[in-house]
Design brief:
The chain has 198 residues and is of the alpha+beta class. It is built from eight helices and nine strands. 43% of the residues lie in helices and 19% in strands. The chain starts with a helix and ends with a helix.
Amino acid sequence: MKLVQDVDAIRSLQLGQRGVFSKGDLQRIFTERHPAAFSRRVKALIEYGALKRFIRGWYITKEADLSVLSQRIAPESYISMDTVLSSALLVGVSPDLGVTAIKIGRSRVYEGCGLRIVHLGIKPSLFFGFTGDGPVRRALPEKAVLDVLYFYLRGRNYPFDIFADIDFSKLDSTRFAEYLKAYRNPKFVTFVKGVVDS
């Protein structure tokens, strides 16, 4: 029975895939030439509970790594904002049901399965300050803080108080000052210094 084989295939690959499968991934796994038959097999996996459809073309398992999903949806992006501040213990709030990433271009929001991925757009000159180790690019804490403050001035709200809840003492002050030089808006620079000094 193909369903049993397909479930076994998903289970055997989910660790390596970090629980994230594109439509192309599934087509390569199934080697199914007929589109209607492929769709039936995917539907059967969803009904069985082995897969969930996140958005069109993207499927996840219960153990899916949202950072990997975010990176695969937008390869030229990096995880940042409250997602990084939480993991670096700079804030005490953890965004369990979503991740936020930065990319060049227009902002986009993806929602499905009770999960949310936000891609915020910035200009090319501010696309820096991240590591590329492993399957996911992540902002260094200093850049994540600057991203938070940058988008705060553009109306973005957070589940923490930027003036009281961010532990700036954990930042590399030299790196932070170096990164801040890339921001050419004097009002933003003054605002950042005021927040940090407060």
